[in-house]
Structures are given as C-alpha cells and as structure tokens.
Design a protein that fits this description.
globular
C-alpha cells in the first residue's frame, strides 16, 4: 500500500504545475497501463492509496508550487524539461515508437498538445461557477489519463487556475465539490476509452501519447541560466531513476 501511495505523490505534485501532467509521471514510473485498468475496473484497493498519494501531493505542494514558480521559474522549468525530455526518450525506446506507421500519430499528438499549450482563450464565465468548475475538473482529468495534456494548463485556459489552487489551500467546498464531481465522471469516461485503445491499437495509441508529451515541451522552455541548466540535468537524472525497472 505504501508503494502505491508513493506512486501517487509525484503525480499529485505534477498536477499543480502548468505544462506537466500526472499521466506523464505515471508513464515514466511504468504504472500507466495499470492505473488506467484500475480506474476502468474500479479497483479501490489500488486506487485509494494512489489517490491518497495524489491528494497529498496536491495539498502539500500548492503553496510551494506557487512560490517556486513565482521566484524560481527558470529553475523549475529547467528541471521539468529535463524530466519530461529524458522520460520521452525512454518511452520511445520501450514502446518502439519509431516505425513508419507510428510517425503520423506522433505528429498528430504533437500538434494537439502544442495547440493546447499555446492557445489563449481567456474564458471568464464567473456567473456560471458550478458548471465552470465542473468542466474544469472533467477536462483536467485528461492530465491523469492522457500524458502530455496538462490539467493545470487547461485550468489556466478556463481562467480558474488561481481559484482552484487557492480553494485547495483553504478547503473551499463551493469550488472543490463541483470540481471533484467533474474529475470522478471524467475519470470513468477517459479510462474506458484509453483502455480500449491500448488493448486494440497499442502502438498507435502510444505513438499519439509520445506526440502529446513532445508537444508539451515548448511550454516548459525556460530562459536558460547556469542553475537552470543544472536543474535540467537533475531532471533527466530523476527521470532515469523514476523509470520502470
């Protein structure tokens, strides 16, 4: 149980950071398939400790995430870029996503992820708070199920990132309840869909996921400094040790 909790911890931390997803971390650690199947089958023996780890990661780092991004953005982005870049190379080798038939899916995934990371929507539907927070929870579920799609980034696009992060720190149920309902419903729908694709079209699905992850990298590009470069290397080393043994 403790091992599953520790799997969830970095996933929760990742979900507070724009540009990175918990699904990417699950992929790096080699538990992605298992996680999707557990969600699909409602395997609470697996989901509860992982979920506890995710929740702990989110609650324990909400303040720290905001502080680090405000005061050390280039160092944080350098670390994340190294983490995701090296983990992507590991994934390409593991899943053999370098054949001619998979390239088109990598490109498609890249375009979708790049578009999601760079579009500016500026939506501010403050009079529709309940459905807006529900929608945020539903869409951000993609961060857990789809590597490369950042849940935090989707919240930024919807204009509710600051509010959701703040509501976590103060336990504002007016925000957390509709957001949580959206997550629960989204998990069920996304997990069924991805599980089917992994079973029937694994190579194409993994190629698409690799493209999604690659497409998220430009959003993490820092203004390079010496310390930022060192953090990039540290992130790559961290990815290497996080990988599935």
């Amino acid at each position: 149980m403790m091992e599953k909790f520790l799997y969830g911890l970095p996933m929760g931390i990742a979900n507070t950071l724009p540009g990175i997803s918990g699904g990417t971390i699950a992929l790096i650690m080699g538990i992605y398939d298992q996680l999707v199947e557990a969600v699909k089958k409602r395997d609470w023996g697996y989901l509860l400790p992982v979920g506890a780890g995710v929740a702990t990661g989110i609650f324990s780092t909400s303040f720290l995430t905001a502080y680090l991004l405000e005061n050390f953005p280039n160092e944080v982005l350098g670390f994340l870029l190294g983490l995701i870049a090296i983990s992507t190379l590991i994934l390409v080798k593991k899943e053999k996503v370098y054949t001619k038939q998979s390239v088109i899916w990598v490109v498609l995934g890249f375009l979708v992820s790049y578009f999601m990371a760079n579009i500016e929507m500026g939506i501010q539907w403050k009079t529709l708070q309940f459905p807006l927070y529900f929608l945020g929870g539903f869409i951000s579920t993609g961060a857990l199920i789809l590597p490369g799609i950042s849940g935090a980034t989707t919240l930024v696009l919807l204009g509710i990132y600051d509010e959701v992060i703040y509501s976590v720190t103060v336990l504002d149920l007016h925000v957390l309840i509709p957001f949580g309902v959206g997550i629960i419903i989204g998990l069920s729908i996304f997990a069924e869909f991805i599980s089917y694709l992994l079973a029937k079209q694994r190579l194409r699905t993994m190629a698409l996921i690799v493209g999604l992850v690659i497409g998220s990298l430009p959003a993490l590009w820092p203004n390079w400094t010496t310390v930022g470069g060192l953090m990039f290397v540290l992130g790559g080393v961290f990815a290497y040790f996080l990988r599935e043994k």
